[in-house]
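Run log, item B.
One chain of 216 residues. Sequence copied directly from the ordering sheet:
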Amino acid sequence: MLGVTVAPHPLLEVAAFTSHFARPLGELGPVAALVALLAPSAAPFHSDDAVRAAVRDLLRAGGFKPTGRSKPASEYLVRAVGEGALGSINAAVDACNVASFHSGLPVSVVDLERATLPLAIALAVPGARYVFNASGQEIDVGRLLCLHDAAGPCAGPVKDSERTKSHRGTTRTLSIVWGTRALPGRAAAVAGWYRSLVELAGATTTEVELLASARP
């Protein structure tokens, strides 16, 4: 079982699991049941203003400002769906986007082969940055909750880094649901549904061991 260390935080309530796909993502193609959910549709979760406010408070707790281009990824998805701009990327990302869009919680998914152990969740240090797309654009993630690997922050509730994103050859992923204690139990419930979505693509999922750290 993979372990991820989680630093103390006043609001964070996180859930995580790994997925193992039988074939590389590039060979799977779109999963119709997932694509159908990349739009307003029947789902066991829905978001609202209270969920959006709670998520923004979660990000603010460390000193990050979740506004403008730094708003939570879940808010970007709502806009993309509203504009009809959210299409299929690959089975892993599609499941991530479905879970995040309907629940209102940000979700990260990284390629485990591209991340270097150990893994930890903590606030990124002030001034920390990473490239988040193929064009080389960077985001300042200082004071933002992030997943860190041995090389530094690599994913978070706003944008995931380009260096650990899934790709056509991906077979193993780590998914993180960024929940908040203001919505108790929601992260775990969303993760359970999210796992069932990934399994629609034939993946095997395994819970991640979350290890408490004494260091912030």
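Observations after the first pass:
- The radius of gyration is 16 Å.
- Residues 81 and 158 are 17 Å apart (CA to CA).
Flagged for discussion on Thursday.
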